[in-house]
Design goal:
Elements (H helix, E strand, L loop, with lengths): L2 H10 L4 E4 L6 E6 L5 E6 L5 E5 L2 H7 L5 E3 L8 E5 L3 H18 L2 H7 L2
Antiparallel strand pairs: 1-2, 2-3, 3-4, 4-6, 5-6
Amino acid sequence: MDAAGSIRSFALSFPQSREDHPFGPEAHVFKVGGGSTMFAILGDGPPVSVTLKLTREEREVALELPFVSEARYVGRYGWVTARIEDEHCLEAALEWMRESYWLKAPEDVREAAWA
């Protein structure tokens, strides 16, 4: 299972998404639009992890899972970190990435993506 590769490919498949490394080469930050709006941070690991923004309701559910924790530094703003331990964790993280992108993308980009 190449979890990091799957996450990276999925993140870059969204309209106007790009990868950046403002925190160093080990933190792959995925941004949307022309500014600095991030929607995911991939850590190569081990273990591979991904940090994402979720709605309050989704965050409450996610935090009940053993592989999810409140994200360092940005957790108070609704971000969680998921450790990718198996295929189930990867599937959940990819679904949450879709939500994180939706929450952070500018409205015109969201409209174009789902038109």
